[in-house]
Structure formats: structure tokens, C-alpha cells
UniProtKB/TrEMBL annotation:
Gene3D superfamilies: FAD/NAD(P)-binding domain. Its cofactor is FAD. Residues 1-302 form the Prenylcysteine lyase domain. It comes from the Eukaryota. It comes from Triticum turgidum subsp. durum. Belongs to the prenylcysteine oxidase family. This is Prenylcysteine lyase domain-containing protein. One of its GO terms (molecular function) is prenylcysteine oxidase activity. GO terms for biological process: prenylated protein catabolic process; prenylcysteine catabolic process. The keyword Flavoprotein applies. PANTHER family: FARNESYLCYSTEINE LYASE, PRENYLCYSTEINE LYASE DOMAIN-CONTAINING PROTEIN.
Length: 335
């Protein structure tokens, strides 16, 4: 994992020693991380000498918490998941939302909230984006910054990307108190603040954690599960339940090594896709690194006249790693 982190840190190198990439495969090969997307975490760990008990009773618990999946995820997603379980993780005081807010402010961007893009049409020199509010936006460059696997955006002409399943994480927030009897315990105080689970078919959730203690017998819990937790089950798990909120998130890709990657440039022109990188590993930081590469790629491919007005510090040398080319027999789906 330390080796993976060291390699990932290369993406923080200065512009002069870090190329701009037009496909995820080359981006991963440059840092030495591509191989980890070709094999499962379990294969990697067995080769590293871990025994099966440690894998099923410790590592699996972590991958179920972070990705809702078993150790059959790719080695890279697994290493990112394990990194996320280490101490010393950073977050922004007051909430990580401030990062996005700060970026929007610095970029002087206009944000259209509560408005979805329904179609993106290539009009020659620009794209026409039509929204569900009936608005049209003409854009020289269009960046898709959401996973395309479950959204309903029509591309004209159609684009082609490999099929990818998303792992749904059902998140249930409950205010109340867990029942120790459900866990074979005699007292509430015996229930740990984080309950992780192994990969066993009769366990209905991936993890439960205490989000907030309002009082000795009044907590807010967060539960992750692969399927909706029905009221009947929650009534068995909790002795009291005042409020329940459920969110079904298409949270991250369902990893299946060897991974296939959608292109970053979707149409050979100026239609870009950030979230293809999530097939390597999905997290806020990997998303930011992928987005920075896309920003530099756009600048490097824009005609000089259109680059005017961009800060010179942000303009990298137009050094693009060559495309990996389409692998023979790769599966693709038309959107
Ligand atoms: C339950 C859960 C726990 C997680 N825990 C962690 C964690 O601990 N650490 C971590 O690093 N990561 C975590 N992640 C992953 C992290 O949330 C994602 O990696 C990150 O949010 C991806 O950012 P993004 O900007 O690429 O996509 P998103 O955050 O999904 O943003 C995409 C945006 O696009 C918008 N959108 C979608 N379709 C359209 C459309 N047609 N038109 C206009 N807008 C559209 C969406 O509304 C959304 O606002 C977790 C995810 C989940 C679900």
C-alpha cells in the first residue's frame, strides 16, 4: 500500500516533469499503477504473503466499508480502500464542501443548481447542451464530470464507452439505539462504535457506525448495505428508532479486474470525461487528480487563441502521452 501511495504521489509532481494524458491507461502506466488494475486485490495479497484468514477477517471488512465489495475488487481499488482505513487522513475543518465552494469561487464559475443536462449535441465548432429547464448552452468545450453509467444524457452523435456496473451503497441513517440482543451481546455499552462485517451471505449490512451521540441512549447511526434495509429488519436491530433516512447511492464502480477504461476524450474533439478514472479507483482525491489532468489536457489541445485569458501558471506544455489505442475485442456500449 505504501508503494501504491508513493506512486500515486507522482501525480503531484510539477508540470515540467508530469505529462498530460489523453487516456487513463497511459496515465496509470506512467505512475506504475496500471498493473494493479489488471488483477484482483485478493491475488495481489496472496502473492504478498497474506494468509486467507487475514484477508477474509480483516481486509474484506475494510473493502466492504469503503467500496461495499469483497476482495475481488482490483488491486488498485483495494489499495486505495486500505489507504482510506489508515490513521492520519485529512479533512477540511468545517467540512470538505468548502473545497468545491473555494474552487468555484476561484474559477469565477457560474453554477446552475437543480438543473440537469439532457442532451449534448455536436454543432461543429461547439456543443449545444440542452437542460431539463428548457435552457440551451453553447460550449466550445464540454466536460462530463459525473459517472455516465446510470445517467440519462443523450449524445448526438452517440458516443461509445465500455459497459460498467455501479455498486449501489444503500445508506441508512437511524436515530435511536441499537439492540445488543441482535448482536448476541448483553449491554449497549458492549456494542463498538464501528461494526464491520465479513463476506457472509446472511449478514445484511456492510457496516454500522455511530455518527453522533446525543445522549447515553440516543444516537445517530450510519449503516451501509448492498440492498435496502426493510423496516422489519431495522426493528430487530434497534430497540428504539425515532427517525430513519434512506439514500440509495450508485456510489462507485463495481470493480472487476482486469478493468476496461472509457476514453477521456469521448469524441476525438472537445468532449471530455473525468469519471472514467473511477474505474481505476473512486475517491474524492482520485477524482481531483483525474480532473486536473483533464483541465491540463483541454488547455494543451485548445487552439492558441482560445487559451488567451487563462492564467499562464495553469497552461502546461502541450506534451500529450499517446493514446493506448483500443484493445482488440474490448466490450463497448453505445449511449
Ligand atoms: C456512501 C458513499 C461514501 C463515500 N465515502 C467516501 C470517502 O470516505 N472518501 C472518499 O474520498 N470518497 C468517498 N466516496 C466517493 C466520493 O463521494 C466520490 O468519489 C466523489 O463524490 C466523486 O466526485 P465527482 O465530482 O466525480 O462526482 P459526484 O460527486 O457524483 O458529482 C457529480 C455531480 O453531477 C451532477 N449530475 C449528474 N447528472 C447530471 C446531469 N445530467 N446534468 C447536470 N449535472 C448532473 C450530480 O447531481 C452531482 O452533483 C463515497 C461515496 C459514497 C456514495
Amino acid at each position: 500500500m505504501q508503494e501504491m501511495l508513493q506512486k500515486f504521489m507522482l501525480y503531484y509532481n510539477g508540470f515540467e516533469s508530469r505529462p498530460v494524458f489523453d487516456n487513463v491507461e497511459e496515465m496509470l502506466k506512467w505512475s506504475g499503477l496500471y498493473g494493479l488494475t489488471r488483477r484482483t486485490l485478493e491475488e495481489e495479497l496472496i502473492d504478498a504473503g497474506l494468509n486467507t484468514q487475514t484477508i477474509s477477517e480483516l481486509v474484506t471488512v475494510i473493502t466492504r466499508i469503503n467500496y461495499g465489495q469483497s476482495t475481488s475488487i482490483s488491486g488498485l481499488a483495494g489499495a486505495v480502500s486500505l489507504a482510506g482505513s489508515e490513521s492520519g487522513l485529512w479533512s477540511i475543518k468545517g467540512g470538505n464542501w468548502q473545497l468545491a465552494a473555494g474552487l468555484l469561487k476561484t474559477a469565477n464559475a457560474t453554477l446552475h443548481l437543480q438543473e440537469g443536462i439532457e442532451s449534448i449535441s455536436d454543432a461543429g465548432d461547439y456543443y449545444v447542451l440542452k437542460s431539463n429547464k428548457g435552457h440551451e448552452y453553447n460550449c466550445t468545450v464540454t466536460v462530463v464530470a459525473t459517472p455516465l453509467d446510470e445517467v440519462n444524457i443523450t449524445f448526438i452523435p452517440p458516443i461509445s464507452i465500455p459497459p460498467r456496473k455501479m455498486q449501489h451503497t444503500h445508506t441508512t441513517f437511524v436515530r435511536g439505539l441499537l439492540d445488543p440482543k441482535f448482536f448476541g451481546l448483553s449491554s449497549v455499552s458492549d456494542i463498538p462504535e464501528l461494526i464491520g462485517t465479513m463476506e457472509l451471505p446472511d449478514i445484511p449490512f456492510s457496516c454500522i457506525s455511530v455518527r453522533k451521540k446525543h445522549g447515553e441512549h440516543d444516537m445517530t447511526y450510519k449503516i451501509f448495505s448492498r440492498a435496502k434495509l426493510e423496516d422489519a429488519l431495522l426493528d430487530q436491530m434497534f430497540s428504539t428508532r425515532e427517525e430513519t433516512i434512506r439514500i440509495d447511492w450508485p456510489a462507485y464502480p463495481h470493480y472487476q479486474a482486469p478493468e476496461d477504461f472509457a476514453p477521456i476524450i469521448l469524441d476525438g474533439r472537445h468532449l471530455y470525461y473525468v469519471n472514467t478514472f473511477e474505474s481505476a479507483a473512486s475517491a474524492m482525491e482520485t477524482g481531483a487528480v483525474a480532473a486536473e489532468n483533464v483541465a491540463r489536457l483541454i488547455i494543451s489541445r485548445l487552439p492558441l487563441g482560445l487559451r488567451a485569458g487563462l492564467s499562464s501558471a495553469a497552461v502546461p506544455e502541450p506534451h500529450i502521452e499517446s493514446s493506448a489505442g483500443e484493445e482488440e475485442g474490448s466490450r463497448r456500449v453505445d449511449l
